[in-house]
Amino acid sequence: MLITFKCRSAPDVVMLENLAQYLLGIIGKRLGPRGVINHDELGVAISKLEAAIVTDKQERAEHEGHFHEGEEGHDTHEIPIGLAQRAFPFLDMLRAAQKENTDIVWGI
Protein backbone atom coordinates (compact mmCIF):
# COMPACT_ATOMS: atom_id res chain seq x y z
CA MET A 1 0.00 0.00 0.00
CA LEU A 2 1.24 3.52 -0.77
CA ILE A 3 1.16 6.37 1.73
CA THR A 4 1.08 9.96 0.49
CA PHE A 5 2.38 12.72 2.74
CA LYS A 6 1.03 16.17 1.91
CA CYS A 7 2.22 19.62 2.89
CA ARG A 8 1.60 23.10 1.51
CA SER A 9 5.36 23.79 1.66
CA ALA A 10 6.59 20.88 -0.46
CA PRO A 11 5.55 18.45 -3.20
CA ASP A 12 3.75 15.28 -2.08
CA VAL A 13 5.96 12.43 -0.91
CA VAL A 14 4.71 8.94 -1.76
CA MET A 15 6.24 5.82 -0.22
CA LEU A 16 5.44 2.23 0.60
CA GLU A 17 3.61 1.64 3.84
CA ASN A 18 6.48 -0.24 5.51
CA LEU A 19 8.92 2.62 4.87
CA ALA A 20 6.37 5.19 6.07
CA GLN A 21 5.81 3.18 9.24
CA TYR A 22 9.57 2.90 9.83
CA LEU A 23 10.27 6.62 9.28
CA LEU A 24 7.33 7.71 11.40
CA GLY A 25 8.50 5.35 14.14
CA ILE A 26 11.91 7.04 14.13
CA ILE A 27 10.31 10.43 14.74
CA GLY A 28 7.95 9.08 17.40
CA LYS A 29 4.72 8.91 15.41
CA ARG A 30 2.45 6.00 14.51
CA LEU A 31 1.13 5.27 11.07
CA GLY A 32 -2.64 5.28 11.18
CA PRO A 33 -5.22 5.65 8.43
CA ARG A 34 -4.86 9.42 8.91
CA GLY A 35 -2.35 11.49 10.72
CA VAL A 36 -0.55 14.78 11.13
CA ILE A 37 2.88 16.03 12.07
CA ASN A 38 2.22 19.44 13.57
CA HIS A 39 4.57 22.28 12.73
CA ASP A 40 5.62 22.52 16.38
CA GLU A 41 6.79 18.86 16.29
CA LEU A 42 9.03 19.31 13.25
CA GLY A 43 12.23 20.40 15.02
CA VAL A 44 12.34 17.26 17.16
CA ALA A 45 11.29 15.06 14.22
CA ILE A 46 14.08 16.43 12.02
CA SER A 47 16.66 15.94 14.78
CA LYS A 48 15.58 12.34 15.39
CA LEU A 49 15.64 11.46 11.69
CA GLU A 50 19.02 13.13 11.14
CA ALA A 51 20.45 11.24 14.14
CA ALA A 52 19.11 7.94 12.78
CA ILE A 53 20.72 8.68 9.41
CA VAL A 54 24.10 9.40 11.05
CA THR A 55 23.87 6.15 13.03
CA ASP A 56 22.93 4.21 9.88
CA LYS A 57 25.88 5.70 7.97
CA GLN A 58 28.28 4.78 10.79
CA GLU A 59 26.97 1.22 10.94
CA ARG A 60 27.21 0.88 7.16
CA ALA A 61 30.79 2.18 7.20
CA GLU A 62 31.74 -0.37 9.88
CA HIS A 63 30.26 -3.21 7.85
CA GLU A 64 31.65 -2.00 4.53
CA GLY A 65 34.84 -3.93 5.22
CA HIS A 66 32.81 -7.15 5.12
CA PHE A 67 32.07 -6.74 1.43
CA HIS A 68 34.73 -8.44 -0.66
CA GLU A 69 34.06 -6.73 -3.96
CA GLY A 70 36.15 -8.18 -6.73
CA GLU A 71 38.10 -10.57 -4.52
CA GLU A 72 38.61 -14.03 -5.90
CA GLY A 73 36.56 -16.70 -4.18
CA HIS A 74 33.94 -14.29 -2.87
CA ASP A 75 30.57 -13.56 -4.34
CA THR A 76 29.91 -9.96 -5.19
CA HIS A 77 27.39 -8.27 -2.92
CA GLU A 78 25.14 -5.43 -3.79
CA ILE A 79 25.30 -2.83 -1.05
CA PRO A 80 21.72 -2.04 -0.02
CA ILE A 81 20.35 1.47 -0.14
CA GLY A 82 20.87 3.28 3.15
CA LEU A 83 18.49 5.22 5.30
CA ALA A 84 19.81 8.55 4.00
CA GLN A 85 18.66 7.75 0.46
CA ARG A 86 15.32 6.30 1.52
CA ALA A 87 14.51 9.11 3.95
CA PHE A 88 15.74 12.09 1.91
CA PRO A 89 12.40 13.08 0.27
CA PHE A 90 10.62 12.87 3.62
CA LEU A 91 13.38 14.75 5.45
CA ASP A 92 13.32 17.41 2.74
CA MET A 93 9.55 17.77 3.28
CA LEU A 94 10.03 18.05 7.06
CA ARG A 95 12.58 20.82 6.59
CA ALA A 96 10.39 22.72 4.10
CA ALA A 97 7.40 22.46 6.44
CA GLN A 98 9.48 23.71 9.37
CA LYS A 99 10.75 26.65 7.34
CA GLU A 100 7.19 27.75 6.50
CA ASN A 101 5.49 26.60 9.75
CA THR A 102 3.12 24.21 8.02
CA ASP A 103 1.82 20.79 9.04
CA ILE A 104 2.34 17.50 7.22
CA VAL A 105 -0.69 15.22 6.84
CA TRP A 106 -1.47 11.80 5.38
CA GLY A 107 -4.59 9.79 4.71
CA ILE A 108 -6.75 12.74 3.74
Automatic annotation (TrEMBL):
Task: Please give the organism.
Answer: Paraburkholderia diazotrophica
Recorded protein name is DUF1840 domain-containing protein
Record lineage: Bacteria, Pseudomonadati, Pseudomonadota, Betaproteobacteria, Burkholderiales
Q: Which InterPro entries match?
A: DUF1840
Any Pfam family the entry gives:
DUF1840
Superkingdom, natural source: Bacteria
